[in-house]
Every structure is written in structure tokens, then in C-alpha cells.
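G., the chain you wanted modeled:
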Amino acid sequence: MASGGLQLLGFVMAFLGWIGIIISTAMPQWKMASYAGDNIVTAQALYEGLWMSCAMQSTGQIQCKGYDSLLKLESSLQATRALMVASILLGLVGVFVSVTGMKCMKCMEDDQVKKMRMAVFGGVIFIISGLAALVATSWYGNRVARAFYDPFTPVNTRFEFGSALFIGWAASSLAILGGSFLCCSCPRRETSYPPTRGYPKNASSTGKDYV
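Predicted structure as C-alpha cells:
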């Protein structure tokens, strides 16, 4: 029963992490403009994401524009996109595989060992999915930090970490941790012992004593 609760907890955590990865990928706030200087800007906030860039005016109006061409993007941004999309697809596979191996599901009830192995395999897929998202967000964040501290970067073009990065870090950590919990349901090998030999029962007394 305890392993079933751990398995359910791991699946819930991994599933929430997968949802967070999807949200992080779709958000445009991967980096936001840093107004460190005395420059007068017309926009209240500038954001850039994997798919578009947005500007929020002082009136509260938000205008977003998708990137014109995929081939004109930086190779690092294309790699980040690929890693996040791969993470989402792996998470989708992990959801179906893990659900098949959950103890609370009725499928594959005839073979409990294979059922638990499916849950473990789903946990491994979730771990790989979380690692892919963690690499993508960390790589992107490292690029943002290096550009920010580069003395040759103009002040009005410096960016800081956006909220999508923090969501991505938290979501990938959840996916990895949840996948690890799912892997804890791995079936253990039972040690086989030789059957115990029974001792013959004493013959029932006939009530006659022999001298």
C-alpha cells in the first residue's frame, strides 16, 4: 500500500511538471528587458520568448509579434526550442506509459511484474523529459546572464531572467522528482528458499503399553 501511494505521488508530481513545461514553452517571458540606465522608453516592459517577442505599453496593452523566419533565428534558440518540444513529447509518452503501470488501473492486472515495470519505464521517460527541459532552460538562462554581464552589451539592450525560466526550472525539477518516485516501484526479486521439510507426526497412541 505504501508503494502504491508513492507511485501515485510520483505520477501526480511528474504530470504537474509536464504541464509546467508546456506552460513555460508557450510563455513569451523567457527574458525581460532590464531598464538599468536612465533611458526613456515608451514601453513598460519588453519580453522575448521562444516563439515571439512582446511589448506591454504603459496603458496595459500588450502587443506580440512572432518571429519572421525560423532560419534567421540563432542556433542556440533553435536548439532550445527543439529540447523543449522533445521534452513535451517525451512527457506525453511518459503519461500514457505510467498510467498503464499504475496499480490503481485495471489494465495488465494478470501480470503485476510487467505492470510495475511499465510504471518504472514511465518514470524513466519522465526523468529524461525533465532533464531535457532543465538543460534547455539552464542553457538559455546562461546565455541571458552572460549577455547581461558583458561590458560590450548596450545598457538599453540588456535582458534579465523572465518568469518562464523560473517556471521551467520548477517544472523540470518536479518531472525529475516524480519520475524518480515512479522508479521506486520497481519490483524486487524475491529470494526463493527451499521448501521446508515436514516432520512426521507421532503415531497416535493406541492406549496399550508394551513392556
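The mean pLDDT is 81.

Shout if anything looks off.
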